Amino acid sequence: MTGVYEYALGDEADDLHPKVRDRYGLGPADAYATVGSGRMDITRGTLALPVLYAMPLRNLLFPESGKDVPFSVTTVGFRDPAGYEALTTRREFQFGERTRRFDSLTVWDAERERLFDFLGTGGHVVSELHPRVEDGALVVEGGKQWTRVGGRYLPTPGPLAVDVTVHDRYDEGDERFYVTATVESDLAGHVLGYRGSFTQERREMEAVPPDLRPTTGIDPLPP
Question: N or C: which end of the chain has fewer CB within 10 A?
Answer without folding.
Answer: C
